[in-house]
Each structure stands twice: as C-alpha cells, then as structure tokens.
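Q: Got a minute? One more chain.
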Amino acid sequence: MRILVIGSGGREHALVWSIAQSKLAKKIFCAPGNGGIARQAECIDIKAEDIPALLDFVKKEKIDFTIVGPEAPLSSGIVDEFNSRKLKIFGPQKKAAQLEASKVFAKELMAKYKVPTADFKVFDNAEEANKYIDKRGVPCVIKADGLAQGKGVVVARTIDEAKQAISSMMQEKIFGAAGNKIIIEDCLEGEEASILVFTDSKDVIPLASAQDHKRVFDNDQGPNTGGMGAYSPAPVVTQGLFKEILDKIIYRTIDGLAKEGIVYQGVLYAGVMITKDGPKALEFNVRFGDPETEAILPRMKSDLLEVMLATSENKLNKIKGLEWDNRSCVCVVCASGGYPGNYEKGKAISGLEEIDKMKDVVVFHSGTKQRKIYDVGQKTEIEYLTNGGRVLGVTGLGNNIKEAIDKTYQAVAKIHFDGMHYRRDIGRRAL
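A: Always. Here it is, folded:
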C-alpha cells in the first residue's frame, strides 16, 4: 500500500516509524514531515491544513490510505472531504472532531450523557466570568473553548491568576477565536492518565495506558505545554480502574455521540484524572496524543496499519485485541530554550548518531529540519537543525520503569543544541 501520513511532529514520526514495520506498507509519504521523518518516508512540502493540495497529491500519487496526525485538519473536515471522494482515510469526521475542537461541546455532551467530569460553567463575556470568579473563589481551571495546541488550559491558584487567564484568552485573544468562549471548572486533584482507544463506533480496542507531563518544568511547575514527556504503562491505571474508565467515560461518550447522530471512527483519547471519587474525564482529543504516542507505539507488537485500516472500514470486530511488549517505555522531550513562549530556530543538533548505536532507544523528531553539507570530496552529510518548540522525543525501553528512565536519560545526555532544556523527572511518579 501507498500511505500518506499528515503532520510534522513527534507523534507523526512515531506513526511513520511504526507503519514502516508493517508488511502492508510499500511506500510512505509524509506531509509536511520533518528532518527525522525523512529517514523513513518521503516528505512532501504540503501543510497539514492545506486540504485541497493534499487531495490533489493523494489522487496524483494514487495513495491507498491517508492517516491524519494533528487535530486542525480533522476539525476542518478533511475526513468528510476524503469520504465524499471515496478516498480511504483514518480519523473522525468534522462533527465528531468537535469533541476536541470545542471544549464546550465536549463538556455539554459529558453532562448530558452522565460521563463523570468536573463541574463547570461556560462564559462568552469576560466581565461575567470575572464576577463568577469573585463569587466562587479558587483554585479553578480556565479553558479556552477552541484549539490551542494543548496550551489553552490554566490552573489558577489565586484570583489574580484566574482573572489574568480570562483577560489573556477573552480580551487579548492570545489563542484567537479559540478564546471567544471559555469554561471555568472545578480543579480536580489526583493522578492523571491518558487512555487511548481505537473505535469504529461499534467496537472499541484500547491501547496501553500512558501518563503525560504537561508542565514545562520539574515537579509540574510552570505553564502548560503540548507535553514534555510521557511513560507507558501508567501504574496508577489498574485493571479494575481501566475497566471503569472504559465503561463510564469511553463507552458513554461514544454512545452519547451516536445518540446525537454522530459516528466516531478513529482514535479517541481521554485525559482522565484518577480522583478519590473515581476516574473523571478532563478532556478529549480526537487523535493520537503527543508525546504519549511516542511512549505507547514502541511497546505495540501488533500491526498498527492493519488496525487503522480495520477502524476506517468498520471491521474492528475482526481484530482480536492488541499484543504488547511487557516492558516499560519512557519518552523525554528535548525543547528549545524559551518554549512554550518565544524560542529561536536553526540551532545545530549533535549526538544523534551516537544514539543510533544504542539498543532499545529511538529518537522521534518533533521540530527538526535537515541541512545537507558537502565536504571537499562531494560526500554528503546530513545535519539536523532545530525547527520548533519541542525538538526531539528521546524514547527508551526497559524491563521496568526505572530501567526505562535510566536508559532514556543516558540517551538524552548525548544530545546537545544551543538552549536545549528538558524535564529531569519524567516517569518518576511511576516509581
């Protein structure tokens, strides 16, 4: 099969890396891809949001199956466009993608179909939101309604923090139209877990559990990011708890969507807080998580492409569960100095060739690009440069979580680029 993966991050590199191992994959393209993805796929200079150009490419290159990585094209209706032309694609349609594109839609659906979640109120007026904060107090969580690349959530511990978040989102428009509406909700306490499942609306096949680290600094300090690292499996998710999350959160959400006339096909990701009152849904994503995917897929022994095809063809009942490596996996994100704020690009990355020699370690590129260097004898060498906020996802497998942590940080120590920073406590919670 000729495969196109859409996207340019660490998640897409992990998808390409996994699909490259499938007996079904003959040739892989990635649009737009990145420096690391170029080692396993042919990168095409088309933006992930440019749906007309992607359609033209798929028809011209006779692509058999397209896989959508990021949320933006899904919420813009790329799957509907492909479906209307009878082109095979993996991901939910536009209506289903509202689960991530609109937090208000997701919360109202949860409330209607009794999916356990934090109590909340919706506001489209900053003045009313501020009055509510004065009345209810803190701590609270403030969320922009629309897509904000994982950064549209503020946990406010003081009234000033809460009002600053409201002002940033609704008045300064730091997330654009995504902040036209906001949600103010109760602050849940507990351990967080990421639960991902494949579903074709009838059947559900869960992936291994994972835990993400959202804050930029150690001990969960600093602003939210797209994710600074992850590990799988998450020990906090016991077998009994996993079943409870599937029953109360995943199945109720998929059934609720069906009752609203919405079919969900693809990966559904639930961010879950394990509270003293049981699991509660924090948010939904309508695609693979990043960096959870980089910690989950190296453990997956089943053929990823086979499962994705079955999901898109309503044949998930033909897949008899997934096979997993029993080892633990840890992914540490190496980020540009200044991320998640302003950062510079174009810094040379060293140490990657040393990691290539390490066993059970793989580096997924998030924000990199290649530069070709020619020596006097016209021999070409490839240099990698930083090209984003999250630059690399360094991932290691170990017989237990401690071994996986040690192996991953040994690899991280070999990498250098100007301004590089990373968290030093990824996976420690699991110990």
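A: The two ends are 42 Å apart (CA to CA).
Q: Perfect, thanks.
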